[in-house]
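Lecture 7 notes: from sequence to structure.
We start with the chain below.
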Amino acid sequence: MATYLDQWLAGKVTLRPSTRRSYAEHIALYLRPGLGGIGLQELGDSHVEQLYAAMREIGQDVDESGELPSELLGRLLAARRFPEQARVLSPARLRRVHATLMSALNNGVKRRKLPVNPAQYVEVPTGRRPRAVVWTAERVERWRATGEHPPVAVWTAEQTGAFLDAASGERLYPIYHLIAYRGLRRGEAVGIRWQDASLADRQLTIAQQIVQLGWATAIGAPKTDSGERVVSLDKETVAVLTTWREHQDAERRDADSAWQDSGLIFTRVDGTALHPDVVTDTFHRIRKAAGLPPIRLHDLRHTAASLALQAGVPMKAVSEQLGHSSFAITADTYTSVLPDVAAAAAEAVAGIVPRKPPASPAQPRSQSVPNPPETGPQEEEKMIAEAGDMQVSEGGPRGARTHNPRIKSPLLCRLS
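Predicted structure tokens for the same chain:
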């Protein structure tokens, strides 16, 4: 298995660098130490199940004797640089490792190295991707009291404005403005070039991104085919980028011969590319100083999408703006994020139902109705005739419904 996994990865010539790094990590930390010594033809579903069981034990407390729960777990920990710092694996992490193994073994079946994929029917934790929630006043109050916060959250329009106000004096303010308004991914924002910008036409073309491989970086294509897109800009964002270009020109003059022309829109003071982690660290520093509830930098992209929906932008347009590979991803992630969106939808439905204004009763229904005066037979016949004439001459149109036909006047009650 160890030999086969190495050969399989070497044969994946079209992988993105970030994907290749993930595959290599899964093989080095889990698949090689867990399955590497097993013959390819001997691999069975029980071997895979035992590996996943050991993976779920990583980071768990050992018993009082200090002995490891299993020899397999010992091999997994030994594959790590600092075994004592191993953290509990999330269900999502286990699913990603399973996906790597499935891809490798499916390739073996296609090449007739295996009759079947032994991992095909091995169960893994299902777990759904956490859905974004909005930082409502109640959640903010809870966070301030306990420090608890949801795994994925977005800011409201007011909170987003507060962050941008706090960041406005920072050198990197334009990149946060662009992400917050147009929802670019971090790598897309860091990797965008001036040649891909047409400020006169208020457009940006997303044609590349800077991906992070450990600490090293590399230039690559957008995350998906649909990630290559044209993003429209509002007038305020165009003004921010225009001012930033003037600022960058001043930095170029100051740097003189030390300036390195990377062609990127967002750079360090010497013209070289920004490191993605620097953008993230600066974001968190500004957020903490502003006293805002925590979100990830990627959640600022989620916030841009949610605010676009709140502003009434169609879901299809938001999906294209974000460069999602599927419209379903946009709908599943953002449909119910902001309460204002849901409230507006509820009011829109209620607004299309035609209703008559409620009648105002002459007196509250809870009050007792006085008995009509006593009348003789002749007066009763006269009153019946008058009541009949009133129903004919003053009745509603044919087919109209009263608000409650069971409510009758005291006179009709007496006459019945």
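Points to note: The radius of gyration is 34 Å. The CA atoms of residues 183 and 322 lie 6 Å apart.
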